[in-house]
Amino acid sequence: MSFKEKSIWISLISTVCIFGYYFLNLQGLGSLPIEKANNIAAKLIVKAVLMTIFVEVILHIVVAIFSPQDAQEAEDERDKFYQMKANSIGYTILILGVIVTLGHILLGAILPEIAEAHFAATFPLLSAHILLFSFIISEVARFSSQVFFYRKGA
Amino acid sequence: MANVPIKNKIRELRFFADEMTQKELAELVGVTRQTIMAIEKSKYSPTLEVAFKIAEVFGQSLEEVFQYEG
């Protein structure tokens, strides 16, 4: 397995574990007052992002120590090709998330009573979380498809 | 996922080139060993540039190394 593929595995597993834990923790916030829930959710986001950076850096260093020659290998055309195909898949999912977020914001502006009653009052930082969720899903799709291409060919 | 429709004789040509390793060929062509392996197994279609470089390493024409079986 090339360093590039190991690197993608690291990103995939760390993203799934850390943000899976993050979204599981969010579920408990629905019962709290919205201001308190917003505060806790914002801290959780920062914690998850910092943890992702820390885990990725540490694991990449560990892999590079065990296979220093592979780590120095530059990306070739196959790596770039798989990356482009995976980016296209991730981008599609991200755009869907952006459209849903826009819809939610527009709903809030046009029919505030419905938006308030059904969404904003029950979920902390809702617009931010729709965007964050789309981003995480798009990243997971991007990493998974890259792994799939490396394993099965394309 | 189905294999790509481009078959090749790289494995055979490596054997007749003093059993050249995949790593040696990869270095001569400028790709990773894993990419040579994927091309050999018809899991990946190389760009024309890499295909020409591979043919050049073995002193063969492109058609002698790669065959389209679509």
TrEMBL record, chain A:
Task: Say if the entry is tagged with keyword Transmembrane.
Answer: yes
**Keywords in alphabetical order:** Membrane, Transmembrane, Transmembrane helix
Span-the-membrane segments of this chain are 7-24, 44-67, 88-111, 117-137
> In its UniProt entry, what is this protein called?
Uncharacterized protein
- Name the source organism: Paraglaciecola chathamensis S18K6
Automatic annotation (TrEMBL), chain B:
**UniProt keywords, alphabetically:** DNA-binding
Q: Does the keyword Magnesium apply?
A: no
The chain positions of domain HTH cro/C1-type read 20-65
Protein species of origin: Paraglaciecola chathamensis S18K6
Protein's name in the database: Transcriptional regulator
CDD domains xrefs: HTH_XRE
Q: Which residues form a coiled coil?
A: none
InterPro entries recorded:
Cro/C1-type_HTH, Lambda_DNA-bd_dom_sf
Which Pfam families does the UniProt record give? HTH_3 (PF01381)
Q: Which GO terms describe its molecular function?
A: DNA binding
Q: What is the lineage of its organism?
A: Bacteria, Pseudomonadati, Pseudomonadota, Gammaproteobacteria, Alteromonadales
